[in-house]
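Data card: per-record layout.
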Amino acid sequence: MENQITNITPDTLKTEFLTAEDCRFFTSPGGFLGAEIRGEPHRRVILSRALPISQPEDYLCVSDVDKKELGIIEHLSDFPEDQQKLMREDLNLRYYCPAIDSIESIKEKMGQFYFDVKIGGKKKSFTVKDISKSIRANGDGIDITDVDANRYRIPDLASIPAKSRRMLEPYVY
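The structure for this 173-residue chain is written out next.
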């Protein structure tokens, strides 16, 4: 079996930064995000975040369907509004993170925590295993990761009902 790691060289590790002048995004006939990069059309591209929590709109990797990196976008805000809209729509499909409106209950059983919450006015239940690693303060908000690696967000802790805050506060680190 050939070891493919030996094919990595400093030249293969070079990162190309893409600017609004180099790159234009579009919706392909199939409904996918496409891009024209330095005059070369790509009918389908994939955007991924290098820093999804701390800088969700900076350092975006643009790859083709074979996962070959085409370049890095330093700041989404450097692109025109119509391009930003297309890019955000694609990222939101990949990085779905619903906002919690309120916490109805948190129950602990055998080391797991069972959350009953409301998201968009609808009831949702999920389980958190390692609460010290799964609930994190992030600016004014809180990020929660469940046992299936789904992420939930409380964008502003002060905006949820006081009863919900009191239930959550003992677990926020």
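Known properties of this structure: The radius of gyration is 20 Å. The longest strand covers residues 102-109.

See the next section for split statistics.
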